[in-house]
Structures are given as C-alpha cells and as structure tokens.
Amino acid sequence: MRESILALDHAVAGFRDVVSPYDGQVVGSVALTPPESVDAIVSAAQAGAVQARGLSRHARGKVLDDAATRIEERRAEFALTITAESGKPIRQARKEVLRAVNTLRLSAAEARRNAGEVVPFDSYEGSEDRMGWYSREPLGIIAAITPYNDPLNLVAHKVGPAIAGGNAVVLKPSALTPLSAQLLAEVLSEAGLPPGVLTVVHGDREVAEAVVGNRGIRMVSFTGGFSTGEAIARTAGLKKLSMDLGGNAPVIVMADADVDAAVAACVSGAFWAAGQNCVGVQRILVAQPLYREFRQRFLQETSQLVTGDPANEATDVGPMITAAAADQLTAKIDAAIAAGARVLAGNIRNGNVLHPTVLEKVDPGSRLWMDEVFGPAVMLQPFSTFDEALELANAVDFSLHAGIFTRSLDSALQAASRIDAGGVMINDSSDYRFDGMPFGGSKYGSMGREGVRFAFEEMTQPKVVCIKR
C-alpha cells in the first residue's frame, strides 16, 4: 500500500507506521503533525472556510457526488485499506465502502435541499407588513475526530455534512486507522474540493488538544470513548460540541418472537466487526419460556462463525484493534467468571483475535455488564416479566440503540416508549443503522445527532432575513 500524504502541506514531525492488528505487518505510514503547527493550520482553514462558504450548493453537491462515484470505482482499494488497517473482515469492509458512498450521496442531496424555510411573519399581530425567511449558514471550521472501528464511513459522516453545509474541516482520524481517511481526503481533492476546505492532521492527544482548544474552531464533532469526550469538553471552551460516546445495547426477545430471525440478527449484531461497534448487541434478554431454545440456537449459529485472517473471504470475525483492547476485554470476562458467570462459547484468544464469546449468569453489577464491551462478547439473561426486561435494559449509563423481537404490537410500542435509548429497533437487532436516520444516544454523555440531514443541521445555523414592506 502506498505511503499516505497530507491533505495540505504543513510542518511534519516525522512519520508513523500503520500496522495490521492481525499480524503486525506495516501497511502504510502517515506524516505526523506537530502540535505547534495547529495555529497555522487553523488559520489556513479559515481561508478554506471562506472558499467553502462561497461555493454554490450545486458545486458542493457536485464535489460530494463525484467523490462518491470515485470511491465506488475504487471500492476494492478502499475495502483492502479498511481491512489492512482495522482488521475488519474483507466482506464487511466492502459493505462499509458502499455505506460511505451512500453517506456522501446523501450529503450531496442535503447540500441542494436543506436551504431553510419561509418565516410567516404576517401570522403575528403587528407584523402584517413583514415577510422573510431563514437560511442555513455554515458555522465556519468543524473539527472532526473519528474512531477506528468504521475508519471510512464514520469520517464520511462528519466530512460529508460539513462540506454540504459550506464549512471547512480539520480532520483528525484515529491514529490506529488513518489510511482510509487519507484516501477519502485525496478523493475529495480529486473531485474538485478547493484546497484548505479539508485538512487532515495526524498525531496523538497533544495534536487533538491543540485542534479542539483553538478558538478558530467553531464546532467539535467527536466519536469515541467517554473519557476522551470528557477531556474534549474540558479543553474546547465556548464552542459547539457533538459527541457519540458509545453505548451498551440491550435486545429483548419476547416469548412470541420469531426465533430464527432473532438468533440470526443477534449473532450478526454481536460479532460484526469483532463486536467493535457502538450499537452492537451486548445484552440479550430472553423470555424465560424461550430461553433454552434461544440459547441452543444462538450457540449453534455462533459456532459456525469463522475467525482469523480478515483478508480471507470466509472470515466472519477478525482481530480486535490492539492487544491492549483485547487485554481489557479479557480482564472483564475473567472478573465476571470469578464472580459466577458461565462461559457458553469462546473465550479463546489467538493474538488479537478473541473467538466469539457467549456468557450467561453475569452479575448485572459487573463491569462486563455495565460498561461498553466493544468486542466479540455477548451476555444472555432470562427474564420473567416484561417489566423486568425493561428494567434490565435501562439499568446502564450509556444508551445508543436497543432492540426487541416480538409479534405483539403492544409490546413493541411499549418498548419503543419505555426503553431509554436513541433508537429502538423492532424485530431487528440493535446494530441496524441507516445512514440517513438521526443517530445518537440518550442518557449520560450523548450530545447531538449524526445521520446526514441531522449532522448538516448541527453543523449549520439559521440566519433570519426579515423585510418590512
């Protein structure tokens, strides 16, 4: 894989190799940004913001559409890049590429569509001689900080709406998976995005802090861990924040559920991308009369998953992103076992590859139950009453998505109303996401919404024009 380049020329503090989480092989490198150069980078981005604001909606949409087409034409290269740097199995990487294409096309449509509204001033007494509207105006410079688990599409989810809204972007992708982001920046440049509208910086915490704390930045859009989100909030100062800080997804399987559909969706939802998925299935709550049957079928289907080399077409579950991430998860599993949990499958590790792991009888107060797992481990738990299931579902601090399988409309609507989550998927696992839907969490730490239209609105602001006749 060729060595990546910076989106714009600026100072370099050396180079860093990017390594495969599967076998440790070097798959590329990026130029590191010195923290002391961030002020100059933001100054250049301010000129880029002027250019971005001056682009017509048609021009913004054309750049995004052209970039989507170029990614589609080079989809094999993008998929291989995702697999090489993140360890995501190649079949799943191809799907991420197609999702990124769709995200950019949705962004292009939003650039052309979301222009504002007429304001009915004359509907208010005393304003009969006024008319006007509001438009959606760019904020200026958006700082986008993205994670490793979807290294292309989650970048597209920030960059696409920001460009559609007429903003400039300073992008800091995950230090573990920067190559997909770099490729996206190159494609946007090739599609005609003016220099300075998108700048990619690479580095560690010091670079991120310098970007986030710069007063020229008008908004920080961050996807990642809770502790990093807290640090960003402390550093950012008076600017807009949008954060997706993870989840701990419950799926309720009622006694009247379609068992085949529930098992298939929950196995996929638990182990897709080695479970490194903020809406991945983590806690499966099964009605007592169905529990033994569901457990048997779930274990049978889990046992058929292929683990190992993510470049292999047959692989379903590849490596976790680092040895440290795998260590953290196995430590939580070990602690849960010591407290009485029972391992039903997996808990076998080869390097960074943790085989799909299924547990039951996990203490609801344990870290494995309460924290975001973010790995290939899932817990089964029977329940006696629907109220008990809802109480278990809600008894965590982080909540993005939840799911329920049932043939009862009443149960489905009750779950939709009573589960504290940003989204409730009915007869689907928690990991379903359409890139145009509002996406975000409830409870502690979730701020704002992604999903192209909703991110576009987060990244723009209304401007009122009123004419007195």
Overall description:
By secondary structure, this protein is an alpha/beta fold. Helices cover 40% and strands 21% of the residues. The chain has helices at residues 38-54, 57-73, 75-86, 90-113, 153-164, 179-190, 205-213, 226-236, 259-271, 291-303, 323-338, 367-370, 386-394, 409-418, 452-458; strands spanning 15-19, 26-31, 116-119, 130-138, 141-145, 168-172, 198-200, 219-223, 240-244, 249-253, 281-287, 342-345, 349-350, 353-354, 357-360, 377-383, 398-399, 401-405, 423-426, 442-443, 460-468. It has a seven-stranded mixed sheet, sandwiched between helices. Strands 7-6-5-8-9 form a five-stranded parallel sheet, sandwiched between helices. A three-stranded antiparallel sheet has the order 3-4-21. Strand 13 and strand 14 form a beta hairpin. Helix 5 packs across helix 15 (452-458). The chain is globular and about 70 Å long. The protein starts with 14 loop residues before the first strand and ends with a strand.
